[in-house]
Amino acid sequence: MAQTIGSRIVQETTLESGYLERLAARIETPGDGASIDVLTPVTDEIIGAIPACTADDVAVAVERARSAQIDWERTADDERAAVLERMGTLVLKHREELLDVVQLETGKSRLHAVEEILDVPLTCSYYAANGSSILADAHRSGAVPLVTDATVTYDPVGVVGVISPWNYPLTLAMTDVIPALFAGNAVVCKPDERTPFTALALAGLLAEAGLPDDLFQIVTGDGPTVGSALIDEVDYVAFTGGTETGRTVAERAGRNLIDCSLELGGKNPMLVLDDADPETAARGAVKGAFTNAGQLCLAPERIYVDERRYDEFVDAFVGATRRLEIGLEFDYGPEVGSLIDGDHLDSVREHVESAVTEGASLLSGGRARPDVGPFCYEPTILTDVDPDSRVACEETFGPVVSVHPVSGVDEAIELANDSEYGLNASVWTTDRERGRAVAREIDCGTVCVNDPYTVGWAATDAPMGGVGDSGLGRRHGPEGLRRYVDAQTIATSRIGPLSAPAGVSPRWFARFMFGLTRVQRRLTRWLP
Ligand code: NDP
Fold first, then answer.
1. Domain 268-463 adopts which CATH fold?
2. For residues 346 and 303, is the Cβ–Cβ distance under 8 A?
3. What whole-number distance in Å separates Cα of residue 381 and Cα of residue 386?
4. How far is the CA of 265 from the centre of ligand 1 (A)?
5. pLDDT value at position 523?
6. Closest ligand 1 atom to the C-alpha of 164?
7. Residues 442 and 414: beta-carbon distance below 8 Å
8. CATH of 8-264+478-485, one of 3.40.50.300, 3.30.479.20, 1.10.275.10, 3.40.605.10
9. Can you state the angle between helices 171-182 and 77-93, rounded to 10 degrees?
10. Ligand 1 within 6 A of 192 CB?
11. pTM greater than 0.85 (yes/no)
12. Does the beta carbon of 229 lie inside 6 Å of ligand 1?
């Protein structure tokens, strides 16, 4: 039945008949026959089904990955890099089918699906080009200069578990998988049960790129069953998702004494300073707040505007927002797509309705649009929001943003930092130096100046991640690779053990060591 209903909507894409079924068949540990239907938010119809893997399936997948990892770790860096480069090329080559799968699963607009595709080849090339130098052996100061030395080497942790969310099913799976593979690990990925086909399509491309069998496995099913089992089996967990799930993941990883990175939610502030160009800032607010219908962890949800620019900014922002087209097409056209499902629509609607009940005013939007798609919601701008309301404090994760006039930069910074979250912020000013200085005052893992999020995210050489309730650890850059390795220190001595030589009294040796320590402290201060 799934195939019959789903095929109607699948036919609107460029995907060949049976494409999704073939993807589902890629799962190597398909469990005891139980399955989970996958629905498209475009029409709320079933488009396919995936196995509901069991904890035993996860254990088998990790065991296979562990066997395959032994040879992969010994493979030369340039061979691993070549696989990644081919993967980047294949993603670009197969972009149309990937765009279709992402749109089918998420209901996002095609242009926003494009952002997902672009990220993968860039990340592949970055780690292919820089991974070896990031993980090269490093010589460090020895305990006693000239007499001893120390070298740090890096070994892969083994098998990495990647648990990824539905909002960016392509980017947010691959951006963590690519460095893990480069570092010599195997990966077992658990995509969100609502968006498994994108990850399965990527598994096919990794195989085509020459990744050895079993090194990248997908396990499908619900988070509490499959995600938990994965954390119990792997050597590291890279998790992206909500803050409360992140706490559960961290607790479980902690019990297993394995490390983890947690990329969680945000309530991201945008600061429009008195010298900002209101039109430019409004363009940035539209892009930031409504990309992927606001289901973006980096999206601004609170905008603080200097009162001297407030009216101009609001006019420009509201005008541009009202011109946005909402729609569901497998083509470039509408700028705002769907929310992921009915539960999420209800949650977004509740945030807006309760804010309005508590005194907020709607400057734009504020309605569901079932006439466009079952889970579509208008891009919504609120003002006069009660600072204690849900929409002010909790992540909405939808096309909803509030604007607030502020007396100046100090108040903007104070309000921006008044949050448990600390993922991403943006500062808008015609003076980039001033923007950098304000950025230093904001408690967020990333702060973008004159862009809502793209310049930070797309800087693949720079780390990305949150503070506070927005998570732990960093992806991208050297930090995003080093999280997947264990550092080993190899220290040598030219003179045998650093202990009192035969015939030397302990008292004399102690005096010698105190003297040596004094000299060493001076050298440490003066020598680089
Ligand atoms: P969830 O935390 O519900 O789910 C994320 C992933 O975790 C899914 O694959 C889910 O599986 C799985 N999961 C659920 N429960 C468990 C568990 N007990 N143990 C292990 N894994 C589990 O988040 P959402 O899917 O709702 O994603 C939206 C949230 O993610 C937002 O809050 C958003 O801010 C955040 N996010 C953060 C990003 C970042 O980079 N910082 C990027 C994107 C999103 P399943 O759903 O199949 O049950």
1. Aldehyde Dehydrogenase; Chain A, domain 2 (3.40.309)
2. no
3. 14
4. 9
5. 83
6. 9
7. no
8. 3.40.605.10
9. 160
10. yes
11. yes
12. no
Q: Give the residue ranges of the chain where pLDDT is below 70.
A: 1-7, 527-528
What pLDDT score does 1 carry?
34
Instruction: For residue 51, report the distance from its CA to the centre of ligand 1, in Å.
Output: 19
Query: Is the Cβ atom of 105 under 6 angstroms away from ligand 1?
Result: no
pLDDT digits (tens, 9 = 90+) for 238-291: 999 999 999 999 999 999 999 999 999 999 999 999 999 999 999 999 999 999
227: tokens are 């995600």
Q: Is 163 in the pocket of ligand 1 (CB under 6 A)?
A: yes
Mutational test site, ligand 1, from 39, 105, 163, max ligand atoms within 8 Å of CB: 163
Closest CA to 362 of 309, 323, 399: 399
Ligand 1 pocket, 240 CB below 6 A? yes
Please tell me the residue having the least CA distance from ligand 1 atom 31.
Answer: 242
Which residue has its alpha carbon closest to ligand 1 atom 5?
A: 241
pLDDT of residue 528: 60
Q: What is the pLDDT of residue 259?
A: 98
| pLDDT at residue number 3 | 41
Distance CA 213, CA 203 (A): 10
Comparing CA positions, the residue from 429, 437, 482, 477 lying closest to residue 456 is 477
Question: What pLDDT is recorded for position 31?
Answer: 74
